[in-house]
Design a protein that fits this description.
Elements: H1 2-21, H2 49-73, H3 76-93, H4 103-112, H5 120-136, H6 139-144, H7 146-152, H8 163-169, H9 172-185, H10 191-194, H11 199-203, H12 208-221, H13 227-231, H14 235-243, H15 262-266, E1 272-273, H16 283-298, H17 300-313, H18 315-319, H19 323-333, H20 344-352, H21 356-391, E2 402-403, H22 413-417, H23 427-432
Antiparallel strand pairs: 1-2
Length: about 425
């Protein structure tokens, strides 16, 4: 079973890599003869090829070191200091770009747009954390992600939320990644980068609204640990899927668990699964859960169709985010705006030589893509919802406190609080070391 899981993970990664690398180059930047100068961009200037390779080496080194600190050294302090380095280098020095989270959109655009080519460095930024997650869990989240690091450092008095709230919120990242892929595939926008709450802080010159949003996330993160990671991060969907199959995942205790519950109390992310009382697994309960599991399993195709139908019907609204669709609707509703010399989008369209009919036709094609993409997005969300409902009736055998493979950030806090020593006979001396 483990070999099959690894094969599935590798197959997914290799398909992404092969398709993305076979895309063609994008059109070069236009040159103007009128003396026009390109305006300064709000994003960092591209790095040289050598420095981009260096960034990949740093990312690989940080994840390898984080994995060693977590699995071998079992050092929370080491992970903490490594995350500080990540925050300084990938956050403030590299301005949060490039990052594996935003690379989802680059990979998507490379798959759907033959005129776009993804660089090998961006592809490696996308793939490396997933490969590590497949084998060792979410060690990228532990110390290699600047977005996670800046949130992790402000956790002061975390509160625990109920299970149903966590499961409800866990559906949001699926919506986010679905919309991000849809918008990138249609060439509409890179919404992950546009609405990244921490890039404005890293670059110190972002829009006031986005800087304020980042500060709000950090304030919230003092009490609800890592809010962006747990509620919004689209990359967490992929990391959680890969981490589910990891064999060498972080373990709370190096020896036998004594069920002291210290680890569960120490985890600010509610990612520790408690033992299941065998009294709960009665024959009648198992039979009832199995019946409900089958019923909800049979309803999955209904959820898929309902989701696809609902989102595809929203394609008119969603497609308005595309600049061509928005511009066509604007000019149809207010044709007098063609005389507005202050509107750069309208003036650029008029200077392009395209007719209004051509613009409307292009907008129609884009809307058609949104309709088709809406079926896929809605079907995916319906599938996720169906599986989540089915999982409510799964009672797994569990005698110890263990980290939830999909939700655990491998931060190492639980290891520090575990009173068990390296040997099962060290329990008594280990209890003295417990951090109350």
């Amino acid at each position: 079973m483990i070999r099959k899981n690894y094969r599935l993970g590798f197959l997914v990664l290799m398909v992404f890599a092969f398709l993305a690398l076979n895309a063609q180059q994008r059109f070069p930047k236009p040159e103007f003869e009128s003396g026009y100068e390109q305006p300064n961009t709000t994003t960092p200037e591209p790095r040289t090829a050598g420095m981009e390779v260096f960034d990949v080496i740093v990312l690989f080194g940080v994840m390898a070191l984080a994995t060693w600190l977590i699995l071998k050294k079992r050092s929370r302090r080491g992970v903490l200091w490594l995350s500080v380095f990540t925050l300084l280098y990938f956050g403030f020095y590299r301005n949060g770009c490039i990052c594996p989270i935003g690379s989802i959109q680059n990979v998507t655009l490379a798959l759907f747009d033959p005129g776009y080519k993804i660089s090998i460095t961006v592809l490696l930024f996308f793939l490396l954390p997933l490969v590590f997650a497949l084998f060792y869990g979410r060690t990228f989240c532990a110390a290699a992600c600047p977005l996670g690091a800046i949130q992790d450092l402000v956790v002061i008095r975390p509160i625990s939320v109920s299970s149903w709230v966590r499961k409800t919120l866990s559906f949001i990242p699926h919506i986010y990644i679905g919309l991000a892929i849809l918008f990138a595939a249609t060439g509409t926008d890179f919404i992950i980068c546009r609405y990244d709450p921490f890039v404005g802080i890293f670059r110190t010159d972002g829009p006031y609204l986005m800087i304020g949003l980042g500060i709000a996330f950090l304030v919230l993160g003092m009490f609800f640990a890592r809010p962006y990671c747990r509620v919004f991060c689209p990359y967490s969907v992929l990391l959680g899927f890969m981490s589910h199959f990891s064999k060498k995942h972080i373990t709370i205790t190096p020896s036998e668990c004594i069920n002291c519950k210290l680890c569960a109390n120490s985890c600010p992310f509610d990612a520790i699964e408690a033992p299941i009382d065998e009294k709960v697994r009665t024959e009648s309960t198992v039979r009832k859960n199995l019946r409900n599991y089958v019923i909800f399993g049979l309803l999955v195709p209904v959820w898929i169709f309902a989701g696809g139908f609902a989102v595809s019907k929203a394609h008119v609204f969603l497609s308005k985010a595309h600049p061509d669709v928005y511009l066509s609707e604007l000019l149809i509703a207010q044709p007098e705006l063609r005389e507005d010399t202050e509107n750069l989008d309208i003036q650029a369209f008029l200077e392009s030589g395209k007719s209004m009919d051509q613009l409307v036709e292009e907008a129609s094609v884009i809307r058609s893509k949104f309709r088709t993409g809406g079926w896929y997005l809605g079907g995916y969300l319906g599938l996720v919802l169906g599986i989540m409902l089915m999982n409510q009736f799964v009672l797994r055998k569990r005698k110890d406190y263990i980290p939830h493979k999909r939700d655990c950030f491998s931060c190492g806090r639980c290891m520090d609080y575990c009173p068990v020593g390296e040997q099962s006979g060290d329990r008594k001396s280990g209890i003295v070391k417990a951090k109350q």
